[in-house]
Amino acid sequence: MIINYRNDQDKVEVTKETESLLRKALQAGARVHRLPKETEVSVTLVDNAAIHQLNRDYRNVDRPTDVLSFALDEADEPAEVGGPEEHLLGDIVISAEMAQKQAGEFGHSLNREVAYLAVHSLLHLLGYDHKKTADKKAMRAEEEKILEKIHLSQADLGGEMHMSDDVKDAFLETLLAGAKAAKSDAEEEAGGDVAMLFRKAREAMQNAYIPYSHFPVGAAVLTDDGAIYTGCNVENASYGLSLCAERNAIFKAVTEGHRTFRMLLVTGNTTAPIAPCGACCQVIAEFKIPRIVMTNAAGDVQEATYADLLPFGFSEEELAEGQEQSGKKAGNPAAAKKAAGSKRKKA
Fold it and tell me: Strand 291-296 relative to strand 301-304: parallel, antiparallel, unpaired?
């Protein structure tokens, strides 16, 4: 494959190693898809301002994104073997600033992020998409197949999941579309809430302090009056002092005076939707949060109630019963004083 590479930005330091890995990733994609040697693609690194402008002009999206693909060959399907020798595939535009930000979010290097985005964009140029669940799975499988060739696959990185900005957008659109197709206004509102909480939780995840696990988690909780509070995991060299994203979000809401909640959403870079840990489940049960939405970077969703997650959780009812029994059996001073007072009144 012929790769025309340019770095048109100066906000992020991009080394020769970054360019080299990007080229290796694209060449691996060309080999996997058996593209003719004369296949040509252009790759340009830009800053957020430049890709923001392209987003406005071509997608009517008023924000920067991580990568854009401009196909010159408008084929609906991936190129087949035996096509024309000269094949101008298209242009790949990557925001170096977004790549750097996402590299921190996913806990890997800028080099790996740029290589991933290049592969993701190359597959778009070859006709792959992720608007439907089946298409998304097929595209993810192709990404992994290519990244395996240069030892940057999910398996190579210890099970890490990745989600490009446009995959995230497609996931949110799917949630919102499902909500609009729902039977009731309440269901539509609930679907919109999930989409909003997912976006907020992913944003919070970027602030995770994870020097030890390198495993970012984000959470967002929706109060009964419509307020949203977010949290990320914060680790400590004394591991027991670490705080999970879910408790972080809930405690933040409680600090602001909230006591009743509609929903909590948690997200992480896992192969299946991530579930709260036992400690978080106990806190969720304490506030009886009725709807727990578990998601992952691939956009998979699973829902549960706090009773599903912690069927034998410790509650205020158990605490009251325990205190009552303790007072009877162990001669609780307060209980004894109350009983004595009652006897004097009777006398």
Answer: antiparallel
Residue with tokens 């770095």: 7
Q: Cβ neighbours of residue 335 under 8 Å, at least 6 residues apart?
A: 327, 328
DSSP, residue by residue, 18-78: HHHHHHHHHHHHHHHTT--TTEEEEEEEE-HHHHHHHHHHHH---S--SEEEEESS--SSP
Q: Two tokens at 151?
A: 């030892």
**Contact of 298 with 163, CB cutoff 8 Å:** yes
Residuewise pLDDT in 10s, the chain (347 residues): 999 999 999 999 999 999 999 999 999 999 999 999 899 999 999 999 999 999 999 988 888 999 999 987 544 433 333 344 457 899 999 999 999 988 877 767 889 899 999 999 999 999 998 878 788 888 988 998 998 888 876 554 544 445 555 555 555 555 555 444 444 444 444 556 888 898 899 889 989 999 999 899 999 999 998 999 999 999 999 999 999 999 999 999 999 999 999 999 999 988 789 999 999 999 999 999 999 999 987 678 899 998 899 888 787 777 777 777 776 654 555 544 444 444 444 44
In single-letter form, the type of residue at position 329 comes to K
pTM over cut 0.70: no
CA atoms 156, 160, 161, 162: torsion sign: negative
Listed residue (215, 205, 217, 140) closest to 171, CA to CA: 140
